[in-house]
Amino acid sequence: LAQRQVIHVAGTNGKGSVCAFTEQILRDGGVRTGLFTSPHLVSFRERIRVEGRLAPEEAIAREISRLRALTVDWDPHPTFFELTLAIALRIFCDEDVEIVVLETGMGGRLDATTAVESDLCAITRIGLDHRQWLGDTLAEIAEEKAGIIHHPAPVIIADLDPVARDVVGKRALAVGVPCVEAHPLPEGWKTGIPGHHQRENAAIAVELACRAAGNRLSRDGIQRSVVATVWPARFQRVGERLILDGAHNPQAAAALADTWKAECGDETATVIFGVAESKDVTGMVSHLRPLAKRVFLC
Predict the structure, then answer these.
(1) Please, are residues 153 and 119 in contact by the beta-carbon 8 Å criterion?
(2) CA-wise closest residue to 209 among 54, 28, 60
(3) What's the confidence (pLDDT) of residue 129?
(4) Whether the Cβ atoms of residue 242 and residue 265 lie closer than 8 Å to each other
(5) Which of 213, 231, 217 is nearest to 18 (CA)?
(6) Spatial distance between the Cα atoms of 242 and 175, rounded to a whole number of angstroms
(7) How far is CA 100 from CA 18, 46, 193, in A?
(8) Are 117 and 74 in contact (CB under 8 A)?
(9) Would you state the pLDDT for residue 132?
(10) At residue 14, what are phi and psi to the nearest 5 degrees?
(11) If we measure between CA atoms, which residue out of 296, 251, 277, 274 comes closest to residue 158?
């Protein structure tokens, strides 16, 4: 990845949206971009994008074959996520992208993406999720997320909970890098992804994009990009009456409920709800129940 800038994003909620906003701003500014995110919704190719386009099937097949031959006898064997990251980085190099935007898979300190040296990093809102791996307290989880911070890359942060802010700030101080809270999005700016919480995600993205390629961007262009950004399963409208949302923890469910009230007022919904048993089901349902006139459980 020599000669390429890398932007690394971690957090509990919003990191995918931050990556999407950042990539859109950079691409619209004429930057050749690579975007790595997870999980995918429909196609594995969604995880790896070059200039907004899904990675070609042929390139993915070629790299899978190459890595299978290379790692068949390795013990321990690389994980699915590690192999996917390796495929993405090879494709980004082959496609000669200028700036790579990497979304952390889980946590940060031990995440595979942290093996890639970044030029900028960001930490979005932090909540209690993946506790079986990251820790039981907000401070423990924040410490894992803050593991992406390293010298000399500045870290851009959301309006973090004071406990998380203290942990992240101490990590930045320890490694000697600036810790900068993103400036609020200008009043009157709209976001292409619905929800008031997306304004903060867009603000982080603007800060990242301006620091990475500010000389190629304009205020009007950035504003257009923020409106143009699309990221599926974030209060995504499908037709007239269906809304899809991938909220998978209480904080995300609360944001979904707030967005519903802002978009739909007092109208109630038929909720189709499915969740992994490792998640905080009670916490999620507490936010969704007031919206529901009936519920179908998957």
Answers:
(1) yes
(2) 28
(3) 66
(4) no
(5) 231
(6) 47
(7) 13, 15, 22
(8) no
(9) 64
(10) 100, -10
(11) 251
Separation of alpha carbons 146 and 140, rounded Å: 10
pLDDT of residue 107: 87
Query: Is the distance from CB of 77 to CB of 11 less than 8 angstroms?
Result: no
Whether the Cβ atoms of residue 109 and residue 137 lie closer than 8 Å to each other:
no
The DSSP line for the chain is: -TT-EEEEEE-SBSHHHHHHHHHHHHHHTT--EEEE----SS-GGGGEEETTEEPPHHHHHHHHHHHHHHHTT-SSPPPHHHHHHHHHHHHHHHTT-SEEEEE-SSSSTT-GGGGS--SEEEE-B--S-SHHHH-SSHHHHHHHHGGG--TT--EEE-S--HHHHHHHHHHHHHHT--EEEPPPPPTT---SS-STHHHHHHHHHHHHHHHHHGGG--HHHHHHHHHH---TTSSEEETTTEEE----SHHHHHHHHHHHHHHHTT--EEEEE---TTS-HHHHHHHHGGGEEEEEE-
Structure tokens at 159: 């309006």
**Please, what is the Cα angle at 96 between 5 and 229, to 5 degrees?**
65
**pLDDT averages per 10-residue partition of the chain, 298 residues:** 92 95 98 97 97 97 96 96 97 97 93 96 85 76 94 96 94 97 95 96 98 96 98 94 94 95 95 92 94 94
- Cα separation, 21 vs 228, in Å, equals 9
Q: Name the token pair of 43.
A: 């196609």
Pairing of strands 120-123, 5-10: parallel
* pTM, rounded to two decimals: 0.95
In sign, the C-alpha dihedral spanning 68, 41, 118, 123 is: negative
Residue 1: the pLDDT is 80
Q: Are strands 155-157 and 120-123 parallel, antiparallel or unpaired?
A: parallel
Q: Tell me the torsion sign for CA atoms 89, 233, 198, 175.
A: negative
